Amino acid sequence: MTNIKEMIRWRPVIISTAIIVAIYFVSDMLSGQSLLFSGFLLAGIAVGFMVGEDVKAGVLNGAITGVIAGIITTIMLVIYLLIEGLSASVMGSIGGTLAMYIAVEIVIAIVGGAIGFFINSETEFANEDDESEVPEN
């Protein structure tokens, strides 16, 4: 049984979180088209691929990425809405919706982490097959 602290890889989590924040800022804040859920899936795949130990590590690191990036993007959204002039009373009424978005984003990042692990393992399997097919001189 592996210790959970040993399964966490902070560098891939930070890189994937930066991917999500960049996609969110460029897509939603600048262009008005939200690619947030797609960004969470892409970053989850990236973290699962980078971790590559086993599916549990991909899922765990995907969940951590989802939590951190979900909180960051929600804070960015709240700041944006307050700048746009939304009142604090309205912000309180959409709190449940924001919490639901964070939960969905975490689930998407978890699924992405699992997919990333499977892509990594398939790539490693294909590389092993390629090495065995190379004739020696």
Number of domains: 1
Mean pLDDT, to the nearest integer, reads: 86
- Characterize the overall form: elongated
From the alpha carbons, calculate the radius of gyration and give it in angstroms.
18 Å
- Helix percent reads over 70%
Low-confidence region ranges: none
Topology as a string of helices (H) and strands (E): HHHHHH
Percentage beta strand? under 5%
Biggest β-sheet strands, sense, barrel = none
Structural class by sheet pairing and helices: mainly alpha
The N- to C-terminal Cα distance equals: 44 Å
The number of distinct β-strands equals 0
Number of helices: 6
List keywords for this structure.
137 residues; mainly alpha; 6 helices; 85% helix; elongated
Account of the protein in words:
This protein has six helices and no strands. With 137 residues, it is mainly α. The protein has one domain (8-126). It is elongated and about 60 Å long. The mean pLDDT is 86. 29% of the residues are buried. The longest helix has 39 residues, at 95-133. Helix 2 (10-31) runs parallel beside helix 4 and helix 4 runs antiparallel to helix 6 (95-133). The protein starts with a helix and ends with a helix.
Please give the structural blueprint.
Elements: H1 4-7, H2 10-31, H3 36-51, H4 55-83, H5 88-93, H6 95-133
Helix pairs in contact: 2-3, 2-4, 3-4, 3-6, 4-6
